[in-house]
Amino acid sequence: MSATTALIANVISSVVAVAATPLFGMLTDRVGRRPVWLGGAVFLVAYPFPMFWLVDTGRPELVILAVTLGHGLCIAAMLAAQAALYTELFETRYRYSGIAIAREWSAALAGGTAPFAAAALLAAGGGASWPVALLMTGCAAVSLVAIWFVPETRDVRLDRPAPRTPVTASRAVI
Asked: To which H or E segment does residue 54 belong?
């Protein structure tokens, strides 16, 4: 595919994501964080094979559609739910570490190695896209299973008082 088609697909999908993310965020306020994330994850489990079928046509309009559905809607739904869910999932004193471990470490491990894995799968598959689609489906399935077991956090109050910590001799003010 041409670099121009790829660029246009990414720009359009990003514009759609910028518009869709706040809408999905509002939806999480109405129905909960988990249902929105689960919807995105279910779609992402089922979508990689049809996405690559569309991309493999080489037709610019189908490539743009494929990228926009995957990134502009599916990923946007999951990311819209993620921000609120992670914030509400951890107590204030653990929040920064909890989010960093949950989001950044997994992004570095899975997202950082994904391009290398995809390139290796493409080479091993003789240029066929189905091994990469299978990898994407597997990663989405992990997300789906993980979010299935996370509690709903929509009604968690963030303004609850912090637990009192007893003053010890080393922290006492004299």
From this structure: helix 48-56
Using alpha carbons, list the distances in angstroms from residue 75 to 78, 127, 139, 157, 172.
5, 25, 13, 26, 49
Return the SS3 of 133.
helix
* Structure confidence by residue, pLDDT tens digits, 3-35: 899 999 999 999 999 999 999 999 999 999 999
Q: Is the distance from CB of 26 to CB of 88 less than 8 angstroms?
A: no
| Centroid of chain to Cα 132 | 18
Domain ranges of the chain: 3-148
The single residue listed with the structure tokens 């939806």 is 27
Considering only CA atoms, which of 34, 52, 38, 39 is closest in space to residue 135? Answer: 52
One DSSP character per residue, 137-161 reads HHHHHHHHHHHHTSPP-TT--TTSP
